[in-house]
Design goal:
The chain is mainly β. It is 10% helix and 54% strand.
Length: 171
Amino acid sequence: MKKVKILAMAILAISFGACSSDDDSSNNNMGSIAGRYNLTEFNTGAATDFNQDGTASTNQMDESNCYDARRIDFNSDNTFTYDMDYILIDTSTGVAVCADNTVSGTWTATNSVITATYEQENGTEVTLNFVRSNNGRTLTQTTTLTTYPDRNSEGVAYNRVGSVTTVFTKQ
C-alpha cells in the first residue's frame, strides 16, 4: 500500500511539473506572439460606400486609406504599442479626416486569446481581446457595439453604430 501511495504521489508531481504557463510567448504551439501585426481587414456589419465610388464594401480598407498604417507591435517583455489610424468625423459639419493615436500597455496570453490593456489619457483602462488563428499569424478582434464611418444620402459623413471586426496579420 505504501508503494502505491508513493507511486501516486510521484505521478501527481510529474503531472504538475509537466504543465506549462498559459502566459508564455509560444502559446499553444502557435509560435511566438512577439512581432508586428499589420491591419489587413476592417470589416463592418453593414456595407458602406464611404469613398463614394459607387461600390459599397464591408471591408472599410476598400473605402479609405485612413486605416493603412494601423498596426500593433507585441514585444517579448509583454508590452505593446498600438498605432490606431482611423477616420475622425466632425459630427457638427460632417467633415471626415484621417487621424491617428498611439497607445502603449501590457499584454497577456491565455490559450488562443491575447488580452492587451492600456490606460487612456483620462485614466480609463481599456482592454482589447485578440483571438489568434492561422498558426498564430492572424489576430482578430470583434467589437459588437461601436461606431464606424458612413455617408448619408447627401454624401455627408456620419458615425454609424454596429459591429466591427479587425484582422491583423503578422509580418
